[in-house]
Amino acid sequence: FFLFFCQAVFMGEQGTISVFFSEYNNIPKKLRIIDLFLLWSFFTGVIQFVYVCLVGTFPFNSFLSGFISCVGTFVLFASLRLQLNPGNSFRVSEERAFADFIFCNFVFHLAVFNFMG
Amino acid sequence: PPAPLPSFPLFPLIKRRRQRQASMARERRRLLALLAVAVVAAAALCGSVVAGGDVVGDLSAISVGQARNTLVLVESEGVLESHSKFLEMVRGNAAKYGGEVDVRVAWDGGAKEIVLSKWGRWVYDSLVLLAPEAERLGGQSLSAAVADFVEAGHSAVLVGSESMSDETRKAAANCGVQFSDASRVADPFHTAAFDSEVIEASNFLSGAGAKGVLSARATARPVLWRGVGAHVAPSNPLAFSALRGSATAFCPTAKGALSKKKSNLVKFTGTDLSLVSLVQARNNARVAVTGSMAMLSDELFAKEDISSNKFFAEDVTSWVLGYKSLLRSHGLAHRLTESGETQDVYRIKDGLSVSMRVEEWSAAQQRWLPHKPAASGPIQVELTMLDPHLRTNFKTDKEGTFVADVTAPDVYGVFKFVVDYKSRGYSFIHLEEQVPIRPFRHDEYERFITAAYPYYASILSTMAAFFIFGFAILYTK
Description:
The complex is a heterodimer.
Chain A: H1 2-10, H2 16-24, H3 29-55, H4 60-84, H5 94-116
Chain B: H1 12-57, E1 69-74, H2 77-82, H3 84-97, E2 100-105, E3 117-118, E4 121-122, E5 126-130, E6 136-137, E7 140-141, H4 142-151, E8 155-159, H5 166-174, E9 177-179, E10 199-201, E11 203-204, H6 210-213, H7 216-219, E12 223-225, E13 230-232, E14 239-244, E15 273-280, E16 286-290, H8 298-302, H9 309-320, E17 327-336, E18 346-347, E19 351-362, E20 367-370, H10 373-376, E21 380-385, E22 387-393, E23 395-396, E24 401-407, E25 413-421, E26 429-438, H11 453-474
Parallel strand pairs in B: 1-2, 1-5, 5-8, 8-16, 18-26
Antiparallel strand pairs in B: 3-4, 6-7, 9-13, 10-12, 11-14, 13-15, 14-15, 15-16, 17-19, 19-20, 19-24, 21-22, 21-25, 23-24, 25-26
Helix pairs in contact in B: 3-9, 4-5
């Protein structure tokens, strides 16, 4: 069964990965931009985590605020992407989604900047 | 004032009542006047006592242990002659170093006329007891009198003998020195040539504590000794032995010299046997206890070529009477190192300076000189909160003040600087000074920490990226 699974995913034109790559460029541009930011904040978070593993947690509050800024903005952008995705069943207007997004980011960055210390 | 009597005589009862009230009022006034007089008299008496107390106040140079008025109590007139050289030495030292010596004879175990304290003030401030058979002193039993005396901070020399009274034994036991039940100490390998009873003891106090008590000439030759041995418990931090028995010394009793069953006798054997014991109490009162009257007698003092009895006795009495190795300390002060100001509360990681003055009495110059810790060992100061967080040695500066520079630890709380100096042979010093230490205020922390620069960078870059992407999302179709 495992072999069958791998074949289905990785091989052939109908495999999941190749379908994914060919279909990706068809999704709206906005969502692709958001995906780019998601990648950015993910890698920034990974870099910080590796750094703290190497150097230690001396200014622990600074580490937390830096890490949380990456994770939090990832979450906020992801939720914006969910709300803007035309395929989803619930619908708020785009303006409303974006306004919520701006407000949440404002509060979030305020907290993070103060916690940095 | 009572109402005027009614004119008509139909109220004789009322009249009598008013008379009684008037007489009671008179009584009350008389009593009040008496009370006022009594209060004024008491105030006058108190005032005179306080004013009279200033007479003692000018002896501020005297501290615990300094002999100014010594009482030497001898057994009988015969002792005055047989110990004349010792008494002459005591008198001579007192004359040289300032002080009076009062030699009194105790007869028939009484010594009733001698008072140690009068009207709550001590008449004598040090005591040399050459009366082993005395039982009472100053209206009290000897052991109680000596115990009170030493507890008040005065020094005493207790000398026992083969025929000493139980009170003398008890007095010595109160000081931590237990006399043996045997009546002599035998040492077959160290007996004096001229008398088989006398032993030659050369196991002197040595090591770090010896310099404060014994001088080189006292330990140059053995001490000739004959009397009752004693034992000082090794766990006793205050009592120590200036002269021990050699390894071959023992106390022969009727039951034998050393019994395997009774461990009581093991204490009085060999180097556990203490021939001359010294005690320095926690209030810095000094007591010397020995079981040998003969050690201080003229005949053994005279044998100067083979013994150092004279110098040993002189050293021990000088130590006890406070002519040497006497310290006084005062002024444990603390301040910040840079600004030099003393604060109520310090902050963690502050640089603190603690200083103290310790002085040693110089009998030769009759004044207090700065103490040099080379002889007695370095003095340490601790910064303690339940446990010592810091401990360091003091350094002396040029005026003899002891100074130590420390950094307040990273722990906050209520600390205290403690100087607890217990050097054998020198006075004990114990000073404490409470020092609260507070944590950082919110604006005293480090501002931009180098190790956190990556986090600062990530946060700022995330905010910038959000700004840019926000525009990008808004303005894309």
